[in-house]
Amino acid sequence: MDYRDTTDEAAFRGRLRAWIAEHAPGHLPRDPDARVDVLNQWHRAMYQAGWVGLTFPVEYGGHGMSPVYEAILNDELGAAGAPPPPAIGHITNAIRLFGSDEHKRAHLPGLLSSTVRWCQGFSEPNAGSDLAGLRTRAVRIEATDGSPAVYRIDGQKIWTSEAVWSQWCLLLARTEADQPAHRALSMLLVPLSTPGLDCREIITAYGTREFAEVFFDGAEVPVENVLGRPGDGWTIAMQLLGYERGPADVGWVARLTRMLTVLEDDVRLGRVPAGPTERRAIAHAWTELRALQLHVQRTLSSRLDGSTPGPEGSIDKLLVTRAEQLLNHVNLAVRGAAAILADGDEIEAYFWSRAQSIFGGTQQIQRNIVAQRVLGLPRR
Fold first, then answer.
1. More exposed terminus of the chain, fewer Cβ within 10 Å: N or C?
2. What Rg do the C-alpha atoms of the chain give, in angstroms?
3. Nearest Cα to 182, choosing from 138, 233, 135?
4. Strand ranges (DSSP E) for the chain?
5. What is the DSSP letter of 361?
6. Is residue 1 part of a domain?
């Protein structure tokens, strides 16, 4: 188990590190719209420099590289405190694996270049992690005047990330009324400019509006906008979530390690007082991060044969949740009231860490996946 860079990987890391040092934006604006503008510029600069789609197949606009290079990218961005790459891997791979040739031609270039933004319409008010219980319906309507058939969508999605800034939504809806729950779902590609669609922002505890409620009231899309086949929605969603639930190989670890390193330096230099109790808490956080790093490296190694992420990603999700929430708790506890009153990066990161155990599937859902699909335990 040798995780050191090869000669080619070391050269890639060196070029990337130099590029990040020259081009990474400074501190992101607090204003949500201004922050999104800066991130859009950053993601487009990354694409133009060749740092986006590293592992994506060449025939679809990527670079066809080993997953190790994606891991190095995330590692270096996190270590430098630079913004992460565009979070498009789950949607691009869903379209690549299940989309028609027309879907791929129409949507993959805009996703990879960050010129078209997408959101993911999964969670509902009464069906968060229980996707099989969602109620949003898309009914196929055959026109009587010879025009193409459409799906008419009615329902509501909630906690839809970045919907207020997106042009398209990857929507999971119930289309097959006569099928059991898991076989009744389809994935639809829906323009957010569609009449009958209303997007309403949700203000978070730390002042952003990155989430939204999205209402569908008779919104219509062509039947050609179904991704895969009608009834494939559950299969597509599970594959997509496999990409989403992992900690982006080592990116999460690098960002959390940077936070811990800054705290350690502040304690060593006397900028933040810390007694034995606080120092033990810091050591505990270090241990959790190290365990996460080793497990993520193991996960990365298992993907070097070109396999797609599977249910094992739920283990990474559970580990990164525990490590991130512990570290943010320790960071605030050691820094004390000053970090809370400053209303800066520390309190924002703490608030965000609380959501880690919910988005992408709650901890309870992740444990069920590990028990049933990884360990093979019975449901009862």
1. C
2. 22
3. 233
4. 118-121, 137-141, 150-157, 168-174, 185-191, 197-202, 211-222, 226-227
5. S
6. no
Q: What would the pLDDT profile of 10-56 be if each residue is shown by its tens digit?
A: 999 999 999 999 999 988 898 889 999 999 999 999 999 999 999 99
**Residue 106 belongs to some domain of the structure:** no
Distances (CA, A) of 234 to 91, 264, 292, 363: 14, 44, 29, 20
Strand, helix or coil at 171? strand
Band of pLDDT at residue 316, cut at 50, 70 and 90 = confident
- Residue 268 in domain: yes
Secondary-structure breakdown of the chain: helix, strand, coil percentages, each rounded to the nearest 5: 50, 15, 35
Residues tagged active-site:
244
* CA dihedral for 112, 88, 306, 74, sign (positive or negative): positive
Residue 102 falls inside a structural domain: no
pTM beyond 0.70, yes or no: yes
Rounded distance between C-alpha atoms, residue 245 and residue 367, angstroms? 13
Structure token pair of residue 189: 């590609």
Burial group, residue 26, by CB count within 10 angstroms (0-12, 13-18, 19+): exposed
Residue 152 β-bridge partners: 139, 220
Residue 184: which domain range? 118-228
Apex CA 179: angle with CA 177 and CA 244, to 5°?
Answer: 95
Q: How far apart are CA 101 and CA 78, in angstroms?
A: 35
The span from the CA of 79 to the CA of 350, in Å, is 19
